[in-house]
């Protein structure tokens, strides 16, 4: 079977992150070529992608062949399956053979959700933009599995994308006609963001699994079971608000963090139309004043985890943001046209 090397490498690079490094089912430690698709799967997620040139044959490309394929000369390559489940990859001057596994041992689940399945249609740009904004707030690990999910909830004409852990919340909202609720594992959200999906994305789902289908890809993922945290209440009852240029505050935070290697919180002292931020520890005594676009009503001193402030400012994309406060012991809301975030305060050393 002759394939274009660049096309094969591009698709392998997109899906190979799903391939497990070890598995009780060794056949999964490779990519299955079947019925015009490349398929990568683990116990939680399966990705299918179309590849031009694949025909009726079914075989497994073992993961140890990926690097060789990437470093072959440009042009066509030939992949053939021989006796004993041996896969030969060759070009005009290069040939190498790998031991592989029978295609029928590649156990993956690409079944659609059950009879109670629902389908939603989401524009790929909206989906990827929202994920890019909230992903930083979703932890990779947590004792509460719900917190490791991208929460997608649609109702009353609005689609919410939410990520949160114990210290930060990120929310993106967009107009949407329909109702559904999904807890998508972080790793599946990461793959949706990484794939070059375009156009409309169909989301077929039930309470256990979801299938995201675009022109070139299908992403099958289990869903996380549980009830999401009532994050809406965190955005209520804020007394003070100031406006600031996002770039000004972000650049100041970057400079401040460059001066310390420790997990020292950043001190915000806000008075009038000035925000004085400072980081003081055994390595640094950094102070910078950032001009605000509007003034605060009363002086406020509050501390924040420096990394969370940086991550939040980077996740926003608008030129101007609004900072909302209720006091030194309450969270700060960071709000722009594209999204909302919450950062919990930390105790400052006197």
Structure description:
The chain is an alpha+beta fold and 350 residues long. It has 3 domains: 2-105, DNA Polymerase III, Chain A, domain 2; 118-231, DNA Polymerase III, Chain A, domain 2 (Roll); 237-346, DNA Polymerase III, Chain A, domain 2 (Roll), CATH 3.10.150. The protein is built from 6 helices and 25 strands. It has helices at 5-15, 66-71, 124-134, 186-194, 246-258, 306-315; strands at residues 2-4, 30-34, 37-41, 45-50, 59-62, 76-82, 86-90, 95-99, 118-123, 149-155, 158-164, 168-175, 180-185, 200-205, 209-213, 217-222, 240-245, 266-271, 274-280, 285-291, 300-304, 320-325, 332-335, 340-343, 345-346. A hairpin with a 3-residue loop joins strand 15 (209-213) and strand 16. Helix 3 (124-134) packs across helix 4 and helix 5 (246-258) runs antiparallel to helix 6 (306-315). It is elongated. It starts with a strand and ends with a strand. 35% of the residues are buried.
């Amino acid at each position: 079977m002759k394939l274009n090397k660049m096309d094969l490498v591009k698709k392998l690079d997109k899906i190979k992150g799903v391939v497990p490094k070890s598995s009780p089912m060794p056949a999964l430690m490779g990519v299955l070529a079947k019925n015009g698709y490349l398929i990568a799967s683990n116990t939680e997620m399966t990705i299918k992608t179309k590849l031009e040139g694949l025909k009726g044959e079914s075989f497994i490309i073992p993961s140890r062949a990926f690097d060789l394929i990437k470093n072959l000369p440009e042009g066509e390559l030939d992949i053939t399956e021989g006796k004993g489940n041996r896969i030969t990859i060759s070009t005009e001057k290069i040939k190498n053979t790998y031991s592989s596994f029978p295609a029928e041992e590649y156990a993956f689940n690409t079944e659609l959700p059950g009879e109670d399945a629902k389908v939603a249609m989401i524009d790929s740009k909206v989906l990827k933009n929202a994920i890019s904004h909230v992903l930083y707030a979703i932890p990779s690990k947590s004792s509460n599995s719900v917190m490791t999910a991208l929460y997608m909830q649609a109702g009353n004409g609005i689609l919410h994308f939410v990520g949160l852990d114990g210290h930060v919340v990120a929310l993106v909202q967009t107009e949407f006609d329909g109702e559904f609720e999904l807890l998508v594992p972080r790793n599946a959200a990461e793959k949706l963001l990484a794939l070059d999906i375009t156009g409309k994305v169909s989301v077929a789902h039930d309470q256990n699994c979801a299938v995201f289908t675009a022109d070139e890809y299908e992403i099958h993922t289990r869903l996380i079971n549980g009830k999401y945290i009532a994050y809406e209440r965190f955005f209520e009852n804020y007394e003070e608000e100031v406006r600031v240029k996002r770039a000004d505050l972000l650049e100041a935070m970057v400079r401040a963090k460059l001066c310390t290697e420790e997990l020292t919180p950043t001190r915000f002292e806000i008075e009038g139309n000035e925000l004085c931020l400072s980081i003081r520890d055994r390595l640094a005594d950094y102070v910078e004043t950032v001009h605000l676009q509007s003034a605060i009503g009363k002086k406020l001193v509050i501390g924040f985890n420096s990394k969370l402030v940086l991550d939040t400012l980077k996740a926003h994309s608008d030129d101007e943001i609004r900072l909302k406060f209720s006091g030194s012991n309450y969270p700060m809301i960071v709000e722009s046209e594209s999204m909302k975030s919450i950062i919990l305060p930390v105790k400052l050393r006197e």
